[in-house]
Amino acid sequence: MPPENQSNGQPSQTPERADRLWSEISQRLRAGMSAHDFETWFRPLAFRLEDNQAILVVPNHFYSEWIKERHQDLLARALTEALGRGMGVTFELASGSASLASPDPAELGALDLNPVEAEPVSPLAPRYTFKNFVVGPCNELSHAACQAVSDHPGRQYNPLFIFGAAGLGKTHLLTAVGNHILKRFPAYKVVYCSTEAFTNDLLQAVRFDGVNAFRDKYRLVDGLLLDDIQFLAGRERTQEEFFHTFNALYESGKQIILTSDKMPRDIPGLEKRLQTRFEWGLITDLQPPDEETKVAILQAKAAEHGVDLSHQVCFFLAQQPESNVRVLEGYLTRIIAVSNFQGVEVTLDLVRRVVGPMLAERQVGLDDVMGTVARNYGIKVADIKSSRKTREVTHPRQVAMYLARKLTRASFPEIGKAFGNKDHSTVVKGVKKMEGLLQEDVEEAERVRSLERILREGGVAAEPRGSNGGD
Ligand code: ADP
Ligand code: MG
Description:
disordered C terminus; 3-stranded mixed β-sheet; disordered N terminus; binds magnesium ion; 8 strands; alpha/beta; 21 helices
């Protein structure tokens, strides 16, 4: 059967439109029956429009019988209201069972499955709250959106998508929302998890026949907070499952919040339908903090340690080009430790002594460049070093060459050698080509700039699982 028939003079029905309609219809259905009934009889259905007919795909006959018997009127009303006119309903039997495909071996291989993680859904870290999140121009929009969402989960801004470079407070804000929701609505079930944990959990579920439990765990919640969604890159099986998780939550008006170090459209290998969904709600970003905000953050963090930092010290630290708050915190921890060990006050002198060498050490290496670029473009370092000539490899390779030249002290021949023994003229050409491209392609220029920032700040987007080495 063709997936889409000619429509009789009506606008063509995109899957997106059908999804949206179904979500509206679901909300109306939901309002008219118990949550349990809805979960049992309507959640498992698929919906599409075809030839002026609403098609409901049911797992077996029992569903259509039951729905016709008990929910016929409600269904007709929900359809009419959502579509603005009456429409016939046809039930269609799902072809085969909706069983899961086995996981992609490449995906399995990319993950360290042993030892089994006992509880992949981490409890919310209580230390991250709105109260100890310092608001400045760099983050006020994201902060406000998070507050709105935690006051009225599922109503506004769904999904909420927060993006920003490493160490700018994504996890902090995400966790703060979770903590706030649980405080306001203690009966709510809010799940926080990293995308890595979600992937692992899914693979375990598929392996050990726990898919239903997996689905219950992520779909029967009031809010799902998924951290570092950029790690969906290249994981088709996880994307497929997350697509359904997303739909289930979205349709029942549950809050979804996602964080990422990239905009949806910049996540390599992200399915279009997921990208679209991520853009349905609100996208906000976190920018590097300005000096004043850095000062306020440092003061707040020091106060948490019971230390009172002088303005002079705060300003000295804030003036460093470092904008990764995690790294700034690291400086602070070290300063406070030294001051405690030696029993001396935190003076500017002490700070210079402690932090000075760390600042000087901050040099970008060729491996950092290749690793960060490879990761960002969803390829391997080995691809960069290889002689493959397909564009998905040659382009990141040239980006890496360009950044290597810009950020390290390595010469052209040295770069060539590190990049898999390539001739120095190849490097020269690559760098030239990038310089030209960056003039023309604004979006790509922005992406490369953000990589440059990440490298300068010594930040990796997040801890990779296992090794991110050559192969
Ligand atoms: P990300 O998830 O974006 O990499 P995190 O949320 O883990 O960053 O933040 C890194 C550290 O910086 C955390 O300890 C967090 O508390 C702190 N931090 C970041 N931004 C702020 C802020 N605006 N106010 C207070 N602490 C912050
Ligand atoms: Mg984080």
